[in-house]
From TrEMBL, chain A:
The lineage of its organism: Bacteria, Pseudomonadati, Pseudomonadota, Alphaproteobacteria, Rhodospirillales. The keyword Transport applies. It holds the Pfam family ABC_tran. InterPro entries: AAA+_ATPase, ABC_transporter-like_ATP-bd, ABC_transporter-like_CS, ABC_transpr_LolD-like, MacB-like_ATP-bd, P-loop_NTPase. The keyword Transferase does not apply. This is ABC transport system ATP-binding protein. PROSITE patterns: ABC_TRANSPORTER_1 (PS00211), ABC_TRANSPORTER_2 (PS50893). Keywords: ATP-binding, Nucleotide-binding, Transport.
TrEMBL record, chain B:
The chain crosses the membrane at residues 260-282, 303-329, 344-367. Keywords: Cell membrane, Membrane, Transmembrane, Transmembrane helix, Transport. Residues 16-228 form the MacB-like periplasmic core domain. It is a multi-pass membrane protein. Residues 262-371 form the ABC3 transporter permease C-terminal domain. This is ABC transport system permease protein. InterPro entries: ABC-4/HrtB_transporter (IPR051125), ABC3_permease_C (IPR003838), MacB_PCD (IPR025857). The keyword Zinc does not apply. It is found in: Cell membrane. The keyword NAD does not apply. It holds the Pfam family MacB_PCD.
Length: 243, 377
């Protein structure tokens, strides 16, 4: 969807690079990269295996520390030559929702509890957390699986529960790593539609890693990586010109 | 939301099995402590049976239990005549073996004088000895029944009364005879050479040898003063009841105490290692879940709680079940097992501390888990 020209980016990378290891064994997983993602956008992060997609996602999620550059989330400078945020987990809890390749639901919690646990951590009361978890699962059309353990869910159901968990605390930024890899094309399409709906309704920035050709045409924008370098970059529809 | 509880619920079988193993281990620890308490208890019952205030024994010995003591029987009159002494009685102590219902029966024989201090204070069935010869009061642990006859030395004795829980420090059940019968028994069981010499009167004081004289003092008389007076006779030593008990604990029980103390420590250490290993493997199995938790923003407190709460639950369940287990089986031990609430609570506290300490390994692992492992494959 078009981005209003006065919008601030929710995710902003300026010259961010990541090198794993040093010297002889150094792997330049991501070379200096600029990137902005605006509210309401679903951005596809594409590229062959080993091109640095997961690394980029982990950098945005504050899971790995950049080697260079600076990172801002929701207008707050999070990294600039060092972490500028004391409690990264709190930051993730409040601002970021993760959707994993293999749903990563906690096996000992029911579908409902898997969603509620995020709310519990965010300080919701037990009843409020349960109610919102139920609403979210209903919204994602898996409400009838509320009390079911993940081992009894189908792949599509599990992924939708995982999305519900990512959305639970109303994060402005949603990061998804190969969310459709385990799904057939029909279900993959449904998941993407759902993400778009969330992006619009919650004014969230959504970054989706994929090398799944089935869904390439469903993103608002595409960013293609190769060997740790951005080789294709769609500009935001109406965003300010990129530096 | 308590994650530990839900994880336990999810792996209930494994958790309960672990708790069962732990409870057996803790049950063994508790029974070791109980056996020690029983040992102390049993060691003292014999010394307490005569209800004495004062023990007069051979000079320079710590008799009659910790060391052997032999004094002439007529010392009883001298002791009885001491100022402040109400009554006194001679006692003999000896171990004997005899055949009973086709089995070898080891007994600890106490000889006492009729109507003088030294007879067992509590008879649970039958009556005390009233005739001068061939009657016996036996402890239930001997397996002897009222009215039963038993051959000791050259004579048959009839069981006229029973006591309960009287054993020597080695665990042998106690039987009581009259002093005269027990001295006769001692003589019969001596090797022939010694017997000939004694019959000739060349022993210390003929055949009237006893091992100790016990005395009760008049109300209000300080026992220690009487003991000091008795000890002034150079061939005698005197111990108060308190000293006698302390001596027994020191000499007879001390080694057992150290032995059992060491064993208990080892068992507790083993429990700690087992708990630590179990918690470590449980944590290993959950690395991915822990990474996910970190990724969705769970603070360390939540993650540590996941492990420590399980450790504590394991400890509490293991301890409770272990205690119940021992309560159920303790009376089937061959020797007395005494379970005190204090010991059980102390063990409970120790187990809680061990559980928290043992979860350290798992907690360390959990805190080191990189949230990035939750992503990708
Ligand atoms: N933790 C790590 N340590 C060392 N090298 C890594 C690590 N993670 C990724 N890499 C390397 O970085 C490069 C990019 O990996 P990744 O970001 O996972 O690519 P993609 O997700 O596009 O497959 C690869 O060469 C990979 O081997
Ligand atoms: Mg990847």
């Amino acid at each position: 969807m078009p981005v209003p020209s006065d919008a601030h980016p929710l995710v902003e990378l300026r010259g961010v690079a990541k090198t794993y290891g040093r010297g002889e064994v150094a792997v330049h997983a991501l070379k200096a990269t600029d990137l902005r993602v605006y509210p309401g956008e679903v951005v596809g992060l594409l590229g062959p295996s080993g091109s640095g997609k997961t690394t980029l996602l982990n950098l945005v999620g504050c899971i790995v520390e950049p080697t260079e550059g600076s990172l801002s989330l929701d207008g707050q400078t999070v990294y600039d030559g060092g972490w500028r945020c004391a409690d990264l987990r709190r930051l993730r809890l409040e601002k970021i929702g993760f959707i994993f390749q293999f749903h990563n639901l906690l096996p000992f919690l029911t579908a409902g509890e898997n969603v509620a646990v995020v709310l519990d951590l965010a300080g919701y009361s037990g009843a409020a957390a349960r109610d919102r978890a139920r609403d979210l699962l209903d919204y994602l059309e898996v409400g009838h699986r509320f009390g079911t353990l993940p081992s009894r869910l189908s792949g599509g159901e599990a992924q939708r529960v995982a999305i519900a968990r990512a959305l639970a605390n109303r994060p402005r930024i949603i990061l998804a790593d190969e969310p459709t890899a385990a799904l057939d094309s029909q279900r993959a399409g449904i998941v993407l539609d759902l993400l778009r709906k969330v992006a619009v309704e919650q004014q969230a920035a959504i970054l989706v890693v994929s090398h799944d050709e089935k869904i390439f045409d469903r993103f608002d924008r595409r960013i293609v990586l190769r060997d740790g370098r951005v080789v294709e970059y769609d500009e935001p529809a109406h965003g300010p010109a990129e530096a | 939301m308590n994650l530990a509880l839900r994880d336990v619920r999810h792996n209930l079988g494994r958790f309960l099995l672990t708790c069962l193993g732990l409870s057996l281990l803790l049950g063994v620890v508790l029974s070791m402590i109980g056996i020690y308490r029983g040992l102390v208890d049993e060691a003292l019952t014999l010394a307490r049976a005569p209800g004495a205030d004062l023990w007069v024994v051979e000079s320079g010995t710590r008799g009659p239990f910790a060391e052997s003591s032999r004094i002439p029987g007529d010392e009883r009159d001298s002791v009885a005549r001491l100022a402040g002494v109400a009554e006194a009685g001679s006692l003999t102590f000896q171990s004997v073996e005899t055949a009973h219902r086709g089995r070898t029966l080891r007994l600890y024989v106490v000889g006492h004088e009729l109507n003088r201090p030294g007879a067992p204070a509590r008879i649970v069935a039958g009556r005390p000895i009233t005739r001068a010869h061939y009657e016996m009061v036996a402890d239930r642990r001997s397996g002897l029944d009222l009215g039963e006859r038993l051959r000791l030395g050259r004579n048959d004795f009839t069981v006229v009364g029973l006591t309960d829980g009287l054993v020597a420090s080695g665990g042998d059940p106690v039987v009581f005879l009259t002093l005269a019968d027990s001295q006769r028994l001692q003589f019969d069981l001596d090797p022939p050479a010694a017997r000939r010499e004694r019959a000739r009167g060349s022993g210390p004081a003929g055949t009237d040898i006893v091992n100790a004289v016990v005395a009760r003092v008049l109300p209000g008389v300080p026992v220690q003063e009487v003991a000091d007076t008795a000890a002034r006779w150079k061939h005698l030593s005197a111990l108060t009841q308190g000293q006698q008990e302390a001596l027994l604990l020191q000499s007879v029980v001390e080694k057992a105490r150290r032995q059992i103390g060491l064993f208990t420590t080892i068992l507790l250490a083993v429990s700690a290692v087992v708990i630590a290993l179990i918690l470590y493997t449980l944590t290993m199995d959950k690395v991915k879940e822990i990474a996910t938790l970190k990724l969705i923003g769970a603070p360390d407190r939540t993650i540590v709680g996941l492990i420590v709460h399980q450790a504590l639950a394991m400890g509490v369940i293991g301890w409770s079940v272990g205690t119940v287990l021992i309560l159920l089986v303790k009376d089937h031990f061959p020797r007395r097992v005494v379970l005190t609430p204090e010991d059980a609570l102390m063990l409970g506290a120790a187990v809680l501390i061990i559980c928290v300490a043992a979860s350290g390994l798992g907690v360390r692992l959990a805190l080191k888990v990189d949230p990035a492992t939750a992503l990708g494959g």
